Amino acid sequence: MPTKILELNERQKLFFKARKRFIAYGGARGGGKTWAVRIKAMLLACRYAGIKILIIRRSFTELRDNHILPLQMELRDIARWKEQEKRFIFPNGSFIRFGYCSAERDVLQYQGQEYDIIFIDEATQLTEFQFQTFKGCLRGANDYPKRMYLTCNPGGVGHAWVKRLFIDRQYVGEERPEDYEFIQAKVTDNPVLMKKDPEYVNMLRSLPYELREAWLNGSWDIFAGQYFSEWNRDIHVVPAFEPPQWWRRYITMDYGLDMLAAYLIAVDDHDMAYVVREVYQGRDLGEGAKGLIVSEAAEAVKALAGGDRITACLAPPDLWNARQETGRSVADIFAASGIALTMTSNDRLDGWMAMHERLHVFEDEQGVKAAKLRIFPLCVNLIRTLPQLRYDDKHINDVATEPHELTHAADAIRGFCVYWTRRSAPPERPARMEWTPDMYEDYRNGTPAERKMMLELWGPRPK
């Protein structure tokens, strides 16, 4: 078999030498990712007799054009192509199989299968469910390495989970940081492309801002389809400080049994809002995480407020819906815990528009870029999820509701922003709490001081 000396750029060398269980390679266009996948798969198949390799892309057309046709040329004297099985068979018993996942359900055909090596090319085009399913296929009773190689660019339906694992390095459940490695690659790391097609870089530089930042610079905070394209971490995230006592303080929340996302926001005399602290807990965080029942959520919100005087605790209208089994709403249970909720609007488009206004970057009197919504560094989940929100494919002005975990923090902040812009308008329903039988009982048995406090928290007694 004729040999060929491989000419690898520095980033490709890191990719070929990587030994972690999950290795992501990329971050921008033109880094030589697809070629590296083909060559790495060929070398592994030749080195380990009987090794089982799977290469995945979103569509079969992409597989054929980017992998199968080039490999048919490169492997013509080395391995046999089996059209029916969509795999190359090597003389030593190894094989490279090809598969696609154009829809969520397509991944189910791989359940129960075993592979020693899995390549997911353009991983951000796949959902986290698809990725997790393929993780379950990475096994085998042999001594071969068990690895998953992913290539990726910012953007796409899988942007959030790839960024969480490989860029932000935030892990849940049994995920271990030592299993994950990210190798950044840009077009400038690919000398072959730079030499043969120098105009490609100029083309990338001419793209609209979002595409240019993602495809040329490999930014994971800015990408095509990003809903809040105003986002700039250097401007919107500010050093923490203790807000003065006279500033108005609000708590705004999004709550369900899947997640509680609540934020303490301080507003200064110039209408600048500072997101000070967060509570972010629920089963949407992944394996091992649990949701909070209503009484637990109420206690978490009370802890968030601390000793601060709260002007209003804002919540969406659905928390006033009474439960059939008890006749009490979430708002009722919060009130019984000493927290009177104020209803904010649930108008999504108005709310997102109000958030755009708050995130809009302007120059202050000193010529410094600023925004009317500023976030303290401890609000890590708001900072993580806000820039990852995408436009909804079916409702062009709305935020995509999947991946669902990304939406909770933004929904909470949306409630504050729309309340602030519409606070003079009458609420959809009276914000005053409806008294429950337990509340009447507590009032009757309370001391004069306790009754006064109850009236301040719950509002006047209904006649």
Which short descriptors sum up this protein?
8-stranded mixed sheet; 6-stranded mixed sheet; alpha/beta; Rossmann fold; 463 residues; Nucleotidyltransferase, domain 5
Brief write-up:
This protein has 463 residues and is of the alpha/beta class.
Distance between the termini: 94 Å
Whole-number count of domains: 2
Tell me the number of helical segments per DSSP (H or I, 4 or more residues long).
16
The description of the largest β-sheet is: 8 strands, mixed
Q: Which quaternary structure do these chains form?
A: single chain
Q: Strands, helices and their partners?
A:
Layout lengths: L9 H8 L4 E6 L5 H15 L4 E6 L2 H15 L5 E3 L4 E3 L5 E6 L16 E4 L7 H9 L10 E6 L6 H9 L12 E6 L5 H6 L2 H7 L3 H7 L17 H4 L11 E9 L2 E9 L5 E9 L12 H12 L6 E4 L14 H7 L4 E3 L4 H12 L2 E2 L5 E2 L2 E3 L4 H6 L21 H16 L14 H9 L2 H11 L5
Parallel strand pairs: 1-7, 1-8, 2-5, 2-6, 6-7, 9-12, 11-16, 12-13
Antiparallel strand pairs: 3-4, 4-5, 9-10, 10-11, 14-15
Helix pairs in contact: 12-14
Can you walk me through this structure?
- The model is unreliable at 424-432 (pLDDT under 50).
- Helix 12 (348-359) crosses helix 14 (407-422).
- The chain folds into two domains: 10-215, Rossmann fold (3-Layer(aba) Sandwich), CATH 3.40.50; 236-431, Nucleotidyltransferase, domain 5 (2-Layer Sandwich).
- A hairpin with a 2-residue loop joins strand 9 and strand 10.
- It starts with 9 loop residues before the first helix and ends in a 5-residue tail after the last helix.
- It has 463 residues and is of the alpha/beta class.
- It is built from 16 helices and 16 strands.
